[in-house]
Specification:
This protein is α/β, with parallel strands linked by helices. It is 28% helix and 26% strand. The termini are far apart. The structure holds fe (ii) ion (FE2).
């Protein structure tokens, strides 16, 4: 299976969206901002697009979901919790549940893992040894959250540490210096939020006040 990374941006924000594809069959993850960049790749590689997966409902992750859904007449997937909590709507929107199966995508085995924290219904998608993490986990840190939600994010990180194999490649929605696609073993050594073994320490550190901005992870 191939993972194609698209680096996209609008005026204020840079993010990464992904196309997984195998034997000409593809699924998009969090498409945003640059329709032509993504669509030209799909067309020039003759990819038959089957679905859009959304990690959460923030605009920089869902911006082109409806458009791809309409143009290719394909389903969009988001966690039931995120749909309920955010009110997100799109054509052909389907819900996924924690560790549930996505039966309508028969070409890949995709495991949704509910990882609340950044948002209540944030979801990572495990496909073979690739984990698409949205804004839950970055290579360098973890997503923005308030103090209450940081406890949830701590539990989500613990879940990933316990249930995802160390050779899994991590594909986050944003990068802050490191390139995407590092394995979980790299994060265990370099991402401080994977090293904090105590919820209070994790929450205190993530929500500490003396940072110039919330993306200063260390
Ligand atoms: Fe977000």
């Amino acid at each position: 299976m191939n993972v194609k990374v698209f680096k996209v941006e609008n005026l204020y924000i840079k993010n990464q969206c992904y196309l997984i594809h195998n034997d000409g069959i593809g699924v998009l993850i969090d498409p945003a901002w640059d329709y032509s960049l993504i669509n030209d790749y799909i067309i020039s590689n003759g990819i038959n697009l089957k679905a859009v997966l959304l990690t959460h409902s923030h605009l920089d992750h869902v911006n082109l979901a409806q458009k791809f859904s309409e143009v290719y007449d394909i389903p969009v997937f988001m966690s039931e919790k995120e749909i309920e909590d955010s009110g997100f709507r799109a054509q052909n929107l389907n819900s996924v549940s924690h560790l549930g199966t996505i039966e309508t995508i028969e070409y890949f085995t995709i495991l949704p893992i509910l990882t609340p924290g950044h948002t209540l219904g944030s979801t990572c998608y495990l496909v073979d040894n690739n984990l698409f993490t949205g804004d839950t986990v970055f290579i360098e840190g973890v997503g923005i959250c308030n103090r209450d939600d940081a406890y949830k994010l701590y539990e989500s990180v613990q879940f990933l540490k316990s249930n995802v194999s160390q050779d899994t490649l991590i594909w986050p929605g944003h990068s802050f210096g490191d390139s995407p696609g590092k394995d979980l073993q790299y994060l265990l050594k370099n991402n401080i939020y994977f090293q904090l073994e105590n919820a209070e320490h994790f929450v205190d550190f993530r929500t500490r006040k003396n940072r110039p901005n919330p993306f200063m992870f260390k």
